[in-house]
Model the fold of this input.
Amino acid sequence: MTKDEIIKENEELQLRYAKAINTISILERKLEKLKKENKRLRNENRKLKRQNRVLRRAMEIVEQMNKEELDFKRVIQLLKNRDRKREDSWGRNGVKNSS
Done:
């Protein structure tokens, strides 16, 4: 190998080395950006999970309230039916019907 060939090869290697260093720098910046995005998404996911738990609990409470309301309505209806039966057997003026 001549001196000129060695110099030329050395220059090509230096150029390839500079490109590799540049590529590494670009990839490191992308990696940092992805790490930040990952952290942001983790925090957002944590908040969404918390909201999801709250909403599920709220739905359970509403469902329980609906069941209790239905039970309450059922009791009211039973009381109304009982009162109607009493009215029918005693009449509206308080005198017992002769049925």
Notes: Residues 3-90 form the longest helix (88 residues). The CA atoms of residues 17 and 23 lie 10 Å apart.
